[in-house]
Design brief:
By secondary structure, this protein is an alpha/beta fold. It contains twelve helices and 15 strands. It has helices at residues 2-6, 8-26, 30-33, 35-53, 57-60, 65-103, 115-141, 182-194, 214-221, 236-241, 244-253, 311-317; strands at residues 148-155, 167-171, 199-202, 230-232, 256-258, 262-268, 271-277, 300-304, 321-324, 334-336, 339-341, 352-357, 360-364, 382-389, 399-400.
């Protein structure tokens, strides 16, 4: 049950894909009418199912990293592509119906009234079918590696005026492995160092699975330069890979302090801030049990939690600011009529950006890496530079995607 609960997104995607394959199998189309077509449908449905099976760490940890990456990515990519093809086919049917109604021809697609109308229909059809593939290619080969720095000012209740403008660079959701290389990490570290931050944070998910290069990732993170060094918390993928203790101990030797149900008081400009960190808080379990003991009375307290869903509990406990990641901004975001379609919205109200409630705030970074299909569309990877301010007159308190 825990496995099923932790992989709802993959379950949903694969289930929809299998439903599409079933419709194709039963439908009057070229694939379902031919023996080779039915064999191909079974193979493709099996590929999508295999991608879901490979979500299991018990299974995927036994495979070489590159083989896992190829099989897992190919399966999830096909699951996504099959859905977009089905949507395109549905849109095509609607398009034909519109043309038929508009020209009062029941079979306008097969017997167009004029060559001009036939060309228009073919062009629109081509655009419908090409758009998903073009978008997926752009998200995989261009936007996925378009790392940039996102600066944001966050008002913090009780912050001493002398700490106005304190700069914190947040690195999160690296997922170093087949789709984020050491060369990528070198570039990310260089960007982080260019921010000249007072403090660096690492808020979880260094890698994705057992066998990913966690040691290389930690050594690269140790190269990040900030006046007060780097502290952090752990994410769900450290738990899945069973490396929580290793990351904590190896990180400490490299100068990275991972706070696991611990707090650390740090001094900046002669004034103190208290940072508390927790391991990944599982959905469905009580959040932040005992974390209130990490609060230091009379001091500004900041919580590091990979999962942003803890925010209401953190706010009640007395943390004026929670800093999180985990969502990747949904990885795929589509805007329509000033609204956004984003898969993360189905599982959390805290997708990306800054959210405020009762004077308390949570900031959710989109992070750097990817899981599942290695693509980002409308949710580019980011390094976040958080500028603390004592002022409440800061624009942009709404969450974004």
């Amino acid at each position: 049950m825990l496995f099923l609960r932790n992989h709802l997104a993959a379950e949903f995607l694969v289930a929809l894909s299998l439903a599409v394959h079933y419709r194709w199998w039963r439908g009057p189309n070229a694939l379902s009418r031919r023996k080779w077509g039915r064999i191909l449908l079974v193979m493709l449905a099996g590929l999508a199912t295999l991608a879901f099976v490979l979500e299991s760490q018990t299974i995927n940890s036994r495979l070489p990293i590159r083989l896992f990456a190829v099989l897992h990515t190919s399966g999830l990519a096909w699951a996504l592509i099959s859905l977009t093809i089905y949507i395109a086919q549905t849109a095509d049917g609607v398009l034909v119906w519109i043309f038929s109604r508009f020209h009062r021809k029941a079979a306008v697609a097969d017997h167009p009234e004029s060559p001009g109308r036939r060309k228009v229909l073919q062009a629109v059809r081509g655009a419908i079918y090409a758009a998903p593939v073009v978008a997926l290619g752009y998200g995989t080969f261009i936007e996925r590696g378009d790392y940039h720095v996102n600066e944001i000012s966050i008002p913090v209740a009780g912050l001493h005026p002398d700490l106005e403008g304190l700069r914190i660079v947040q690195i999160t959701d690296i997922h170093m492995g087949a789709f984020l290389s050491e060369r990528d990490m070198e570039r990310i570290v260089g960007m982080a160092n260019d921010t000249r931050a007072d403090l660096a944070l690492m808020t979880g998910d260094l890698i994705t699975r057992t066998g990913d290069p966690v040691e290389v990732c930690l050594k690269q993170l140790a190269r990040v330069k900030a006046d007060a060094g780097m502290i952090g918390c752990l994410g769900n993928h450290e738990i899945y890979a069973g490396i929580e203790d290793y990351v904590e101990q190896r990180g400490a030797r490299l100068g990275i302090d991972f706070l696991r149900s611990r707090n650390r008081v740090m001094e900046f400009r002669g004034h103190k801030l208290n940072f508390a960190g927790v391991d990944y808080q599982r959905r469905g379990s009580p959040y932040l049990v005992g974390t209130e003991r990490l609060i230091v009375p009379g001091m500004t307290n900041i919580l590091l939690s990979h999962n942003p869903d803890v925010f209401p509990v953190a706010a009640r406990q007395g943390f004026p600011l929670t800093i999180s990641g985990h969502t990747h901004g949904g990885q795929i975001t589509v805007e329509y009529l000033e609204q956004f379609v984003n898969p993360a919205r189905f599982v959390t109200p805290y997708v990306s950006g800054l959210y405020a409630e009762g004077g308390k705030r949570v900031y959710v970074s989109r992070g750097l890496g990817t899981v599942g299909v290695p693509t980002r569309i409308g949710a580019p990877p980011e390094l976040s530079v958080i500028r603390l301010t004592a002022s409440s007159k800061v624009p942009g308190l709404e969450g974004s995607v």
